[in-house]
Amino acid sequence: MILWEIKKILKSKTGLIILGLLIFLSGIMFFLKPTLETENSYRNDKYELVIDDRAGDEIAKEKFNEKINQIEQMANTYVNDESIKKIIEISRENLRFMKYREYKDVSFFKVFDHRADHPFMSVVMVIILVLIFSNIYTDEKISSVDSIILSSKNKFKVLYSKLALSIILPILIYGLYLVIAFLVTVVQNGMPVNGELEAFRIIDNGAILLNGTYTINNYLILKISTMISIFISISVFSSFFSFISANSLASISGTLIFLVLGKSCTLIKFLPGELLTILSSVNYVDLIFYPDRFIGMYCGQINVLGNSLDLTSLCNGILIFMLFMGLGLCVFTFKKILTR
Description:
The protein is mainly α. The chain has 14 helices and 4 strands. It has one domain (2-54, 106-338). 66% of the residues lie in helices and 4% in strands. The strands form 2 sheets. It has a two-stranded antiparallel ribbon. A two-stranded antiparallel sheet has the order 3-4. Helix 2 packs antiparallel against helix 6 (119-133), helix 5 (107-116) packs antiparallel against helix 9 (155-189) and helix 10 (216-244) crosses helix 11. This is ABC-2 family transporter protein.
């Protein structure tokens, strides 16, 4: 059933649009590059671009020493603030477990990390997923095939295959993107080396705000896993709106409202401060456009019902909850609405 659904998508106009978007994304990937550790540029008072022409190793060593100085300053800080204490402890652990206290080439990982969650990629991925799953069932309604499906003894098999596709396809599409990104990065920056070193080496801003002593490999696994969770959640809710909507326009509108709802609620200032803090960290708009502010970062503590909770862990739990809530809503729709 799942293979049949995939073939149907590929043969449709939507399939051609998706293929075109993937080819476009693969082509533009060559230009999705961060400033490497061996490069430096800035804007002067006249807003003119000034490029540092020193040797790459010299620039890289200076940047690395600046990061070490920041971590050491934080590690040597003594305060009673619980939210700062964790950053201090993580800084001390980073210094304690540092394998090499000198610059090492991490160019591959810095570029790959930049491409793994680039906002442009995320927007294209969301467009692809919404195009697919907002039409996953409305197409059946428009062509009157839904009545045939619902009268069949295999109706649940068909419906659950569509739901399963909303989990599998985001992984396959994002996985394909990562494979292409890996190959392009190898061509441009060579094979990956030093992935066992500290994650702060590939982070430009907020190196002291990491939520743990991650290695580069662990940090990338966390980032990729989080992005997969986000994409699957969007796919599942797009499918849900397709199951309950009469046409594609209503389904896409419902999905877009769902995506911007959390961000919109942050503008409602009379909501409780704790809720606004959570929504500011875990809404889909910011996760798509500013993932590096959240993934693997320490966002502080928050008081919920008298309990002090780690905000990052709470937000990760909310992401997982949203995924399972979407799955639950789809199953409920199958059993109580479509087949009643």
